[in-house]
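Progress against Task 2.4 (sequence-to-structure conversion) is shown through the following example record, which the project officer requested during the mid-term review.
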Amino acid sequence: MLLMLASFLLPFLLNPALFASLMFFVWILREVIVLAGHSKKVTAERKVSEQLSLGHTQNVNYHIKNQSQKGLTIELYDELPHQFQYRKPMRTAAVEAESAIAFDHALKPLERGEYLFGDLIAYIGFKNSLVYYKKVIPARKFSRVFPSVIQLKKYAIGIFSMTASMAGIRKVRSIGDSDEFEHIRPYHQGDSIKSINWKATSRSTELVVNQYEDSKSQSVYFVIDKGRSMEMPFEGLSLQDHSINAALVLSNTALNKYDKVGLITFSKQVDSFLPANDQRHQLERILNILYNQETEFSESGYEELYYSVRKKVSSRSIFFLFTNFETMSDLERNLEYLKLLSRRHLLVVVLFKNMEVDQLSREEGKKVEQIFMQNIAFSLYFEKRKIVNKLKTYGIQAILTAPQQLTVNTINKYLEIKSKRMR
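Structure tokens generated for the chain above:
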């Protein structure tokens, strides 16, 4: 290029410049031909699960193999699903002759649905090469992002292990007057005198008591509000998605407690209704229904919910309602239907804290603007407390929880209901 420019001032340099340019293009052509031959012996593959969990970081495994007789520099791109919006190379690495490398890339899906992983694209060259050969490696694959199966397995282990309390989950075993006798055990200080088994004590050298299991075969329904109030985001997921993850874990917990589990989703009207059942495939049915749920930006129809439940659920059941009332007026519009629902069933309303408001109310304001914003945050914070107290006034169980503590708090509430045999 410099010789070409110089030839404008010194014409005798034109022929050497043309010859140098020809040699450069010949060298480039040779590099391309050689790389094309080597690229045939380069392979790459991706391993990704067909089932991914919503809101959890999961690894995708890549394996690059160079079977040629020469070391190569390989830059690997992956046509990841558009939901991730990732356009950078997965890895640029020098791969020695007849060797392979493997590496992982972390992905965190934040939307439920079907994800298309496209082809792998490898740019192959020599060390410090000016030329790279592009090779497209077919690797199209579909994966489906389900409600968090990872969270389900985590809590399934935690709840029924001796270390459950370390994770914040309270495993409650109670001594009471249920007919579901489990076994006899030694008396401990604090046990009810009514539970002492006097006949067994007379044959023993110490006091013994009857141990009872929690009552079984109750119907438990998880009701998910899909109205616009549930679209508020937290840590990349909407409140609806947090509720879906929690409902899946709670369903598994209730089924392991031998309860019947059902599912209801609603917005303007009831969209999905799965009758309570304790069959082996009930959890799979719930998973498939939750997988397809989409938020509808409309006012939630509590009237439709009440009449649908009244028509389809005849026996008294436990209802966990995942919803979000931001103001007292929101609650007042629907309170009558919640009261009617609580007369027929044991209703637990699960509400969400606004974590930004909660944090703002705790900060110390120094400027006038900060103090003004803090006062607004305080009013919104106490509004939520008033909503919870209002519900409890009418005998409706209520939980006000941070989204990240939703699963633990709802599990504890369920275990509390089981231990107290509330109906």
